[in-house]
């Protein structure tokens, strides 16, 4: 028997596919599919051939609307970046990195910021993100404050929760869907920096009176990103508040160019200085990679055409760590490229 379903969880070689009647099937992917480089993501709509009353084989994957590689999810309608006001402390630069990365990968989908744990501490970041294009929500998974408004945003959408470990992504899901099989960390393991959620999991949300098709995707927390080698113009595009500035010339990267108006805008309070500093650091990271890739060339020619004092005063990133993540990044890219060539 053949059935349509959605991949809701992936564990090692097992794919858990939920059919339209909400039954979960434990599946393998047909070997040929994987050989052809068709990598499957949580969120993919697939066709399975059942082999017993609970098991099956994925024989076909439907075309996807989009996908994000970190965290890996397909058919995403919106991303919600979750941070906490405290435990762990709110870190604006880290949030900017998430936002930039997500925007780079999924430029067209809605992206929200959710600040959790407001029962412990209240923070307000609206002003800083005013022109960034990201809506900010404040919630407490513990007291459920703000969750009604949060749920409103989920209606008829597949929303991915992403953010560092310990901020309460799984707790928010549990607060909305008490029977969901998500694990929540305890304070001591959080303090030790343990990651609690290990797998990406898609959860059906039925909250309050809402009778709609909403899904939340729980993902493992992470903080490592590599911006190395990304397109500089596209990096600027991820900062809407900086991109929208009308500068002295078209295509200005606001990176020390002559006649750039950015400093003036910051002085006038029209641009957030912290957002700009985040952007500069990320841009420098993207540039560094290019310099590495074309070492020979870079001796004679500087990438931006002129040395930037702000960028070059940045702390150096540990070389060994860089090399490792570069290798990983390349493998990931290769995987994605192969997939896209399909
Ligand atoms: N006071 C308070 N504690 C919270 C709140 N939300 C989560 N916590 C606590 O924060 C800790 C981490 O919560 P998790 O939901 O496991 O965090 P996570 O973001 O899923 O972490 P990873 O799975 O490791 O990525 C747990 O001890 C929760 O009880 C909140 O709104 N208020
Ligand atoms: Mg979790
Ligand atoms: Zn400029």
> How many extended strands?
13
Number of helices: 13
Rounded to an integer in angstroms, the radius of gyration calculated over CA atoms is 22 Å
- Overall form: globular
Number of domains: 3
**Name of the CATH architecture of the largest domain:** 3-Layer(aba) Sandwich
**Separation, N- and C-terminal Cα atoms:** 27 Å
Which structural class do you get from the secondary structure elements?
A: alpha/beta
User: In this structure, how is the largest beta sheet organized?
Assistant: 6 strands, mixed
Q: Which CATH C-level class of the largest domain is it?
A: Alpha Beta
User: What is the chain-wise order of helices and strands?
Assistant: EEEHEEEEEHEHEHEHHEEHHHHHHH
Mean pLDDT: 85
What do we call the CATH homologous superfamily of the largest domain? Answer: P-loop containing nucleotide triphosphate hydrolases
The CATH topology of the largest domain: Rossmann fold
The bound ligands are: guanosine-5'-triphosphate, magnesium ion, zinc ion
Weakly predicted, low-confidence segments: 292-324
Structure at a glance:
The chain is α/β, with parallel strands linked by helices and 342 residues long. The protein is 33% helix and 22% strand. Mean pLDDT is 85; it is low at 292-324.
Keywords:
342 residues, single chain, alpha/beta, five-stranded mixed barrel, 13 strands, Rossmann fold, globular, six-stranded mixed β-sheet, OB fold (Dihydrolipoamide Acetyltransferase, E2P), binds guanosine-5'-triphosphate, binds zinc ion, binds magnesium ion, Ribonucleotide Reductase Protein R1, domain 1
């Amino acid at each position: 028997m053949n059935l349509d379903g959605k991949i809701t969880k992936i564990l090692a070689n097992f794919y858990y596919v939920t059919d339209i009647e909400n039954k979960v099937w434990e599946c393998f992917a047909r070997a040929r599919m994987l050989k052809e480089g068709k990598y499957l993501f949580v969120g993919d709509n697939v066709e399975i051939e059942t082999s017993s009353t609970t098991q099956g084989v994925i024989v076909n994957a439907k075309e996807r609307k989009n996908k994000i590689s970190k965290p890996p999810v397909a058919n995403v309608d919106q991303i919600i970046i979750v941070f906490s006001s405290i435990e762990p402390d709110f870190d604006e630069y880290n949030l900017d990195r998430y936002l930039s990365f997500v925007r780079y990968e999924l430029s067209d989908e809605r992206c929200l910021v959710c600040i959790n744990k407001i029962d412990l501490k209240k923070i307000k970041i609206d002003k800083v993100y005013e022109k960034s294009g990201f809506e900010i929500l404040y919630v407490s998974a513990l007291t459920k404050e703000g969750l009604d408004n949060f749920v409103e945003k989920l209606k008829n959408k597949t929303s991915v929760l992403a953010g560092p470990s310990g901020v309460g992504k799984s707790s928010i899901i549990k607060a909305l869907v008490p029977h969901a099989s998500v694990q929540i960390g305890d304070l001591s393991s959080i303090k030790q920096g343990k990651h609690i959620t290990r797998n990406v999991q898609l959860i059906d949300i039925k909250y309050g009176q809402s009778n709609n098709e909403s899904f939340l995707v729980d993902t493992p927390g992470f903080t490592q990103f590599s911006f190395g080698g990304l397109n500089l113009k596209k990096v600027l595009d991820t900062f809407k508040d900086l991109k929208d500035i009308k500068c002295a010339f078209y295509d200005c990267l606001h990176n020390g160019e002559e006649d750039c108006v950015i400093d003036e805008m910051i002085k006038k309070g029209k641009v957030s200085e912290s957002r700009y500093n985040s952007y500069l650091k990320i841009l420098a990271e993207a540039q560094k990679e290019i310099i590495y890739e074309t070492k020979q060339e870079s001796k004679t020619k500087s990438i931006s055409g002129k040395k930037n004092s702000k960028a070059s005063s940045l702390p150096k990133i540990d070389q060994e760590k860089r090399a490792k993540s570069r290798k990983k990044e390349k493998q990931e890219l290769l995987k994605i490229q192969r997939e896209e060539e399909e």
